[in-house]
TrEMBL record:
Keywords: Glycosidase, Hydrolase, Signal. This is Beta-xylosidase. The keyword S-adenosyl-L-methionine does not apply. Transmembrane segments: none annotated. Residues 1-22 form the signal peptide. Residues 98-516 form the Glycosyl hydrolases family 39 N-terminal catalytic domain. Belongs to the glycosyl hydrolase 39 family.
Amino acid sequence: MLRKIKLIVVFGLACFSAGAGLAQRPVAIRVEAGHTIGPYDRIWTYFGADEPNYTYAPNGQKLLRELGELSPAPVYFRTHNLFTTGDGDGSLKWGSTNVYTEKADGTPVYNWTITDRIFDAFAAAHVRPLVEIGFMPEALSTHPEPYRHTFPKGDIFTGWTYPPKDYAKWGALVRAYAEHMKQRYGSAVDGWLWEVWNEPDIPYWYGTAEEYDRLYDVTSAAIREALPNAKIGGPESTGVASSHAETFLRQFLEHCAHGKNAATGATGAPLDFISFHPKGRPSTVDGHVRMDIGFQLRAVERGMKVVASYPEWKNTPIILGENDPEGCAACQGAANGYRNGALYGVSEAEVMARIAELARRYDVHVQGTVTWAFEFENQPYFAGFRELATNGVDKPVLNVFRMMGMLGGEQVQVESSGALSLDDMLQGDATGAGDIDAIATRQGNEVSILVWNYADDDVLAPDPRVTLKIAGLGNGSVQEEEFRMDKNHSNAYTVWQSMGSPAQPTPEQQKKFEEAGGLERISAPHAMQIQEGNAAVEITLPRQGVTLIRLSR
């Protein structure tokens, strides 16, 4: 029996298909607060983006601070282009730091000015770097010209994607970089993560698999020379959705276990975590967005099966280095409009819970899932990019992460009459009545419950009536208060639209948008009775909404 209790109840919704003539259906969810099933892991506290230079822009610094405040567990940030040559100018899918150039005689020149601005922004926000070593400096590239791409026009896989022409110079650069980080940030680097390159199974790496293995060996050896206790991993390959991707991941794991190390001559290479990228596949059907979480989850499952098949690596942590509803944060289009509203956030809640369920099924350890979304500078408001904020205004998805940040401690047993099975989700059966399911945690005298209603089809449907019963709370009364994120609450996008979608908001409008981007409380604390250790909450939930109910003594 709990003497003091604080109860947080979170409800999440997305639209499901109304084409089948669905009627409003009652859903019963039962939470056994006294029945723990294991620790709750905050696997979602990882974020990232292509564009490193936006991290120290004013809007980027604001958003980094908000990410650092999401959870008591460490929040990590991963970014591309930390070694890319340039003047620090950012654009879509591009960034640069100019850490390496050469004099006319080939003498290396190191410059940490821009990279210091990036990592200083991380430190100020209390965000830990997941340091991605890449991409190839122009002076070291075996095929340097053309170097900078012009996305969305032309080929993005230009001179920065090629192997180094001199592995000794590359290794020296990596070692100097790691040594500089240790000198500048001290013992804080002990909590960082390090990795080698990005998606080397596709043209992000214009080399062979064997050449990537060599790059990995040289890079990891250089990092360990400077930081003997550094946690290093990879290969950050694409999702194991094809035979080629699986073949690449398997050869890499074989190399790290049994191959000859190109840097040390020893057998194998350090591998403290294994990373790959599962992505979804949304489309437009009959004028509405149809998500495809099943495709995304099947990529997660295939990667887990690969890892679990190796006795050497079965217990090695997995990081889903880019875990997203689709593949291009900087792309726009009709199927990507969901990113502005509530559906993006609800899909994140669904996916995170299902990944944890898959990890339990295959007995593997998922350390983190990187949401590849941040913010874009010098772009229109709510332009449809996959981002957490736009022009300093938080999008609804960020409020779902805020709610997930309220979970913690031990996970407890939950049963829902509206839930789809994991196999249903894997098979893509989330286009009908949807999935109304929940996870719950208990931490000391606090119980938190995250409930979502998800469907792939983003169309209108009747609101389900959800009755939530929580057992094991003790007796007496509690104080109840409610927060909400839906179309009309905690949703700056709707407010922006209601004010005419201004391209250049006034300062007063900007302030209103920023206020609307926060998590809104819609019910002040009021008394609620608990009888025979049970609490009951009944609510009719709006489409594409998230409600947080907090009960506390």
